[in-house]
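Hello Y.,

Per our agreement to keep a running log of every chain we model this quarter, I'm adding this entry. I've kept the format consistent with earlier entries: sequence first, then predicted structure.
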Amino acid sequence: MTTAPASPRLTLRQSLGRTHMMISLTAVCMAGLFLTITALLALRLYADHNLELVARAISYTSEAAVVFDDEEAAKDALETITSREDIASASIVLPDGQVLASWRRAITTPWTTLEQHLARLILPGPVEVAMVRESREIARVHLVGHGQYLLHFLLQTLLATLVCLLLSILGALHVARRMQRSITAPLKALAEVAYSVSRQRALKQRVPAANIAELHALGEDFNTLLDELEAWQAHQKRENASLLHRATHDALTGLPNRALFEARLGQAIQGDQERFALLYLDCDRFKQINDTLGHGVGDEVLIALARRVQHQLRPLDLVCRLGGDEFVILLAPIRDEHEVHEVMTRIQQGMSTPVVLSDGRHLGVGISIGAALYPEQGETADALLQAADGAMYESKRQRREGAGDHKTTT
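Predicted structure for the entry above:
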């Protein structure tokens, strides 16, 4: 079963234009109708009064002809007066019902028939005026109105209505354009901002001020909502950054943790870059420091060790804490082994100065460092870590043996 395609929706400008057009047309048609009815009623009264006046004029003019029973004179009087008025037919009827004289307008064009029909529908009925002489009725003047003036009036009214309709259409279009600038323009700006926010997450956009109070209030409320959304987004970014930092950094020393180190080491191996080195470092006799001086002193030693190691590295090098007193350093890139030995020497020299504890005591701290080169000593992360760890323990063993020999010699 196929569904019929949805009809296109009207824009607000088109809807307002149609509304103004319908209002204007309805107002003009209703006003034209009421004015036409009012004018027709007035014309009906005027025509009735005019027919009565014409009948009286005929009565005065043809009185002598009626008294002397002069048919020709009576007909001339009828024709002279009625031919200049809006009269369809006229007659002078004697008391015995005999018609002394009569006159009828000739039908020369189709308009004449239409005029007569309009006269019968709208104008009042025939007018009869008694012709009285010495308090005695000697005849009656019978008049039927003609619709010539009525047709002219209706045609003029129709023309005026059409002109008003045309002017109303032009006025409605003009008002619709002004309405677009005053109403649709602010709403369009609001819709554009809402579209940008929903599709592009552009929370920094704002709705411009509007001249209409309600639209201005709507825009201000929308801007307030955008302010809250922007503040919430900034808060979320800070929270995400904080969570990401806590997930990838050691809480005690602030150094990157094992997760971040493994990611960076994997990037270095997969990046097909030049040689790099991995240094493995731990603190000598750290368990003894924790057991004899307490974990608080052990934490101070780790923090001092982390800071001193960071100060001896290059800008692109990375030092991470794997856990406990174990640290790993990624030196990238390197040109030869001499750079690696130079960094290891600087770190050893940096730790030659005793650590100043919070209570003012000085504590000498020794460290052991082992190095592994990529790709000579391993092409995978596990191989490099094992090689560096082994080199670190070998350095620790040599330091212990050297210390033992020194004591024996002494």
